[in-house]
Amino acid sequence: MTTLSPPVLSPARRDDSRIFTVSVLMSTYAAESASNLEAALDSIERQSVRPNQLVLVIDGPICGEQEAVIARHCEESGIATILVRLPHNRGLAEAMNAGLKRCTGEFVMRMDSDDISEPDRVERQLIYAQAHRDIDVISSWSEEFFEDGAPSQLKVSPTSHDAIIRALHWRNILVHPTVLIKKTALVAVDGYRATYGRLEDYDLFVRLALAGAKFHVIPKALVKVRSSTAQRGRRGGLNYVLNEMRFRFECLRTGFLTKSQFVAITLMYSVFRLVSGPVRRRLYALART
User: What proportions of the chain, in percent to the nearest 5, are helix, strand and coil?
Assistant: First the structure.
């Protein structure tokens, strides 16, 4: 495969023309399918501007089919790949932290093992990073697609820093596998935490915001995110509510939320999480479009 040259900045910024390096950070685990992993890796290999490095965390033992996909990638892709093997499944937060230690790029690009990056993803996010060096977190819109026959949906969000921060007070409007983050910003907040279960991405974004990180969202779907209607239905129940309450109390403690915001958001989401699965799925569809 021919590797295209990195994006070239306009002459007005030639004094700032050194191209940033990018490490893609992914993890896979036993429940992932080999076909999903292969599609995700292929989408990285097909980038118009290829990353400098791929760090793939193998979070516990995986099947032979996944191992074969990984071996093929390492042999044929031409992308410098680091494999980090964890002896037991530790979950996404710990897998990300293990991989982050091996990332050498100035920017870390998140990618999930069952999602698909558009061919121009790296190029578009790099160009924005080069032209806006004060921005620490560059996300994008995404397309959520379903294998169970439901129509795909476009996930949109505010694009400017101030609007993103305002929205983050109410819900996580950033799609984790779309982000490109300065490694120095990640290290400064000690990476990921598993304190609040599956809210490790929301927790990370709030801590980055409190640390003064600057955000931007590119208004284009650069990642296709695999999902299912059943998955939406599972984002509820009493345990989920209690976990969210702990997280939002931490947001209150650190000053990210005011008392009135904490009360309003906690009440609203407690009702949302406790309604029936079908109703919650319909509400998700409304909230994400």
Answer: 45, 20, 35
Annotated domain spans of the chain: 11-227, 238-287
Amino acid at 276: S
Q: Are 164 and 158 in contact (CB under 8 A)?
A: yes
Q: What is the pLDDT of residues 17-41, one digit of tens each?
A: 678 999 999 999 999 999 999 999 9
Contact 26, 100 (CB under 8 A): no
Lookup: tokens for 49: 């501007």
pLDDT tens profile 167-187: 999 999 999 999 999 999 999
Tens-place pLDDT, residues 75-101 = 999 999 999 999 999 999 999 999 999
CATH class of 11-227: alpha beta
Please write down the long-range contacts of 167-173, taking CB distance under 8 Å and 24 or more positions apart.
168/202, 168/205, 168/206, 168/209, 169/256, 169/257, 169/261, 169/265, 170/261, 170/265, 171/287, 172/199, 172/201, 172/202, 172/205
Please say whether the beta carbons of 98 and 87 come within 8 A. Answer: no
